[in-house]
Amino acid sequence: MPGSGERNDDDKVNCGKLHLMRPLIQSQKLRGVRYDVRGPILTEAQRLEQEGHKILKLNIGNTGPFGFDAPEAILADVIHSLPESGGYSDARGIYSARTAVAQYYQSRGLIDTRVEDVLIGNGVSELITMALQAFVDNGNEILIPAPDYPLWTGAVTLAGGTPVHYRCDEENGWLPDLADIESKITDNTYGMVIINPNNPTGAVYSEEVLRGLIEIAVKHQLTIFADEIYEKIVYDGAVHHHVATLAGDDAIVLTFSGLSKAYRVCGYRAGWLMISGPKHLAADYLEGLNLLANMRMCANVPAQHAIQTALGGYQSINELVAPGGRFHDQVKLASRLLNEIPGVSCVEPSGALYCFPKLDHDLYPIDDDQQFVIDLLHAKKILVTHGTGFNWFEPDHFRVVALPEEDVLVEAIGRIAEYLETIRQG
């Protein structure tokens, strides 16, 4: 037998073999999935930061880095609850949080809302993915606004469905084009997404428009997915109407909202989903949704303790959206400054935290808007998001986040204007 430091012949043969590993590649399910808000442009910005450049990020609606702190009462409640937050909660969410959400919608006319109708999640983003995974079968078509919050398109695709984008009309204040929606419905259309107030356009839909959308959904037996995360961020007399309240018992509505934006706690990841309408028709679906909730154990427990305090306490958001408040004044300033740039037009937002300006193609003959924002990043160290990243149809828009203080916005949009001037001059 060989000694302890020797190899036998078989060992020598095995050492000489070339072991070829199978390449590790992404799932085919991801091939059509995009999330350009945090895509290649952010990767390039991070590379520039590593080289020592200071990048002003106007690509993500993240309130914390721009000086928007969590209300003290919310922070105190989360800290107070930490000792009892070490274990898993009920997969659907802690009872006090779900009760607060149910009562919130009861106060808005949905008096039949029960605790059992509410599911707490790690932000609206997680709940969107879960809700679609439980709903969509391969090839099912889901109507999504264009432009959209791109997670909706990505999550439908990941679930095996087909996103079908209906046009929002820029000439009509970015309101949904009801005739375009009707023209895109087929026998395989199962759901309709409504984002109100809209990200990225800042449009706030009137009651008349929402009733028109509900009428289409009822006519074609579509489930409505109502993304209302910006519901409290509206300006200058604009009124947010809950789709669920208007639909009543005529349609099944899944309403999504949370604390991230209105209460300036994006990192807490505290969101909720509420189901309304003829809920007896959704029993099988809810069983599947609860299965997915159980599989992820539960939502972030400390943040769930913030929900009751947030919804029942002083609403400091009202000061931010009124004239003189930072949200209001910064969105209005950004819109005005963008409209002052030759060849740039921006519908003034009525809600949310963004501007979605259009570039005149005669002055700015841009065929690749992702390359445009990368070139802007290189030239001026400003990070924005290209319009096709929100599934807009033409490469002639970009989105600006209006969260920096006014002097920073003036500087940032000034840099954008300088760069656009270089394009106009050839």
Key words describing this protein structure:
426 residues; alpha/beta; Aspartate Aminotransferase, domain 1; Aspartate Aminotransferase, domain 2; 2 domains; eight-stranded mixed sheet; three-stranded antiparallel sheet; 15 helices; globular
Overall description:
This protein has helices spanning 9-16, 40-50, 72-81, 95-106, 123-135, 150-158, 178-183, 207-219, 243-247, 283-295, 301-312, 317-321, 326-339, 369-380, 406-424, and strands spanning 56-57, 118-122, 141-146, 162-169, 175-176, 189-195, 223-227, 253-258, 270-276, 344-345, 354-355, 358-359, 382-383, 385-386, 398-401. It has 426 residues and is an alpha/beta fold. The model has no long low-confidence stretch (mean pLDDT 92). Strand 6 (189-195), helix 8 and strand 7 (223-227) form a beta-alpha-beta unit. It is built from 15 helices and 15 strands. Strands 2-9-8-7-6-3-4-5 form an eight-stranded mixed sheet. Strands 11-15-14 form a three-stranded antiparallel sheet. It is globular. It starts with 8 loop residues before the first helix and ends with a helix. The chain folds into two domains: 30-59 and 323-424, Aspartate Aminotransferase, domain 1 (Alpha-Beta Complex); 72-312, Aspartate Aminotransferase, domain 2 (3-Layer(aba) Sandwich), CATH 3.40.640.10. Helix 3 (72-81) packs antiparallel against helix 11 and helix 5 (123-135) runs parallel beside helix 6 (150-158). 38% of the residues lie in helices and 15% in strands.
